Amino acid sequence: MNKDARIFVAGHNGLVGSAVRRRLEREGYCKLVLRSHAELDLTRQAEVEDFFSQESPEYVFLCAARVGGIMANSTRPAEFIYQNLMIASHVIHASYRFGVKKLLNLGSSCIYPKNAPQPMREEYLLTGPLEPTNEAYAVAKIAAIKLCRYYREQFGADFLSVMPTNLYGPGDNFDLETSHVLPALIRRFHEAKQASSPVVTLWGTGAPRREFLYVDDLAGACVFLMQRCSAREIGEFVNVGTGEDLSIRDLAGLVSGIVGYTGDIRWDATKPDGTARKLLDVSRIHALGWKAGMGLREGIAQTYDWYENNFS
Q: Each residue of 214-259: pLDDT tens digit?
């Protein structure tokens, strides 16, 4: 990508999109094409095609998505599958129609089967049933991967996909009904500390294990791949993560310590745990020359600082 290339960051106000925007700006890319949801509804094909026709982006980072945690995915599956299918279909097709040189599609590690061997390698896609609590979202993300693959195979489009592990960082969603586990823990423990609550009760058993990637590390990986790698080199998609995980119970202890909450933590085993383990095999992206740099403790501390500055 040349520094004066026209680059569309779809979803630039979200967690991933804002990190990609920051990274591009820091590296000197000066012609970013940005639209808020109010300005451009990616679920409407006519709006998307009008935008591509008028703005002629050369490169696209497809970071826009409808996202959420277990509760949101379980209670709003129709919204998750419809909106994510429409966003991916419209942006990917318009990128082909209007001659985009390269597109990077952001996926999610929930695409893997519920009982996939650990760590999860790219070739495990579609080898077993999905986790029921986020199946709708996963199906939409799998469809986006296949769209990129088949536009490459049929039309030669340089459309590649990356599958990040669980993300966190500045700009995260801290809404307790729709957030993922790490930002939810930060908010729960912060509010419990402020209220001097003696106990915080958390969903599940705390036994599942999860891997977490600081969002600015992901942004670095995305820009790295767009600058240096083609879709043919990468294959259907490439995992992006740290290659390390921990239990939700240990994560809760780590977050509570960083936040400064000193009360008790209890677990409500009547609530769902979700998938037992989700650890990515990151050997492919390591072989391409990229590795994560942010440690989990430092990343959580920086995220908590951002939360205090913006929500306290």
A: 999 999 999 999 999 999 999 999 999 999 999 999 999 999 999 9
Catalytic one of 59, 96, 112, 137 = 137
pLDDT tens digits for 107-150? 988 899 989 999 999 999 999 999 888 899 999 999 999 999 99
> Could you give the CA distance from residue 137 to residue 77 in angstroms, rounded to a whole number?
7
- Tell me, what's the pLDDT at 45? 98
pLDDT over 80 (residue 72): no
Catalytic residue at 59? no
Closest by CA position to 95, among listed 8, 163, 21: 8
**Residue 143 vs residues 46, 125, 135, 185, 283: alpha-carbon distances, Å:** 21, 12, 12, 31, 24
Q: How far apart are CA 129 and CA 148, in angstroms?
A: 22
Q: Which of 118, 24, 12 is nearest to 64 (CA)?
A: 12
Cα 259 from chain centroid (whole Å): 24
Domains of the chain: 7-172+211-243+279-294 (3.40.50.720)
